[in-house]
Amino acid sequence: MSSFRVRPAEPQDCPTILRLIKVRQGEGTVALLLISDFLQDGFGKHPFYYCLVAEVEKKKQSERICTVGYAMYNFNYDPRVGKLLYLKDFYITEPYRGLGIGSEILKILSQTALETNCSCMHFLVFIRNQPSVEYYLRRGASNLSTEEGWHLFRFSKETLLRIAAE
Ligand SMILES: CC(C)(COP(=O)(O)OP(=O)(O)OC[C@H]1O[C@@H](n2cnc3c(N)ncnc32)[C@H](O)[C@@H]1OP(=O)(O)O)[C@@H](O)C(=O)NCCC(=O)NCCS
């Protein structure tokens, strides 16, 4: 690898990002996400997410530019803190970890948050993903679950249908 670059995703990146999401989650777990939905949700009139992609330039392979990671985020609003950048997913493929690509992405996301007057950046980390917990703590993150006692809840589609019909 000679160099990497991080850039905003474009519609034509969607198949590659979906492929990386499947690799990250384990094949099959995101089967419900259709490429058409993914494309519409990110690049339609009202984007539900934004995405950065990381590319490397390979000197030898026939396919010289290769996407090796992504960060998916959106903007959220919290009545206690106002605007915030919500980092939803962040992944660099294993052979390219530890090269500073993740740090470059976090730098761009921090700049984006500041430029859009966000007061902070939120993200979820699976507690058993200890390397990532440490990665974020080393960079100054606060653990809101232990410090403030937050728990993540969900109403499933079935529950929404039931409540909506009550
Ligand atoms: C978290 C992640 C995105 C960081 O990306 P990255 O490109 O490796 O980030 P950097 O190169 O900037 O930094 C890597 C850190 O891991 C360490 N590291 C070094 N070699 C590494 C390797 N082969 N694999 C993993 N981490 C390594 C580095 O020391 C560095 O830590 P430090 O800067 O605090 O000392 C990446 O490890 C990843 O995709 N992990 C799996 C998915 C995940 O857990 N995502 C985050 C939760 S949402």
Give a structural overview.
- Pfam families: Acetyltransf_1.
- The longest helix is centred in the middle third of the chain and has 15 residues, at 101-115.
- The protein is globular, with a radius of gyration of 17 Å.
- Strands 1-2-3-4-5 form a five-stranded mixed beta sheet, sandwiched between helices.
- The chain is 36% helix and 26% strand.
- It has helices at residues 14-25, 35-43, 101-115, 130-138, 144-148, 157-165, and strands spanning 3-8, 50-57, 65-78, 82-92, 120-123.
- Coenzyme A is lined by residues 90-92, 97-103, 125, 129, 132, 135, 138.
- Coenzyme A binds next to strand 4, helix 3 and helix 4.
In brief, what are we looking at here?
The protein has 166 residues and is of the alpha+beta class. The protein contains six helices and five strands; from the N terminus they run βααβββαβααα.
The helix fraction, in percent, is 25-40%
The distinct bound ligands, ions and cofactors come out as: coenzyme A
Distance between the termini: 58 Å
Return the string of H and E elements. Answer: EHHEEEHEHHH
Topology:
Elements: E1 3-8, H1 14-25, H2 35-43, E2 50-57, E3 65-78, E4 82-92, H3 101-115, E5 120-123, H4 130-138, H5 144-148, H6 157-165
Parallel strand pairs: 4-5
Antiparallel strand pairs: 1-2, 2-3, 3-4
Bound molecules: coenzyme A (COA).
The site of coenzyme A (COA) has 15 residues, from strand 4, helix 3 and helix 4.
Throw out a few tags for this protein:
166 residues; alpha+beta; 5-stranded mixed β-sheet; 5 strands; globular; binds coenzyme A; Diverse_Substrate_AcTransf; acyltransferase
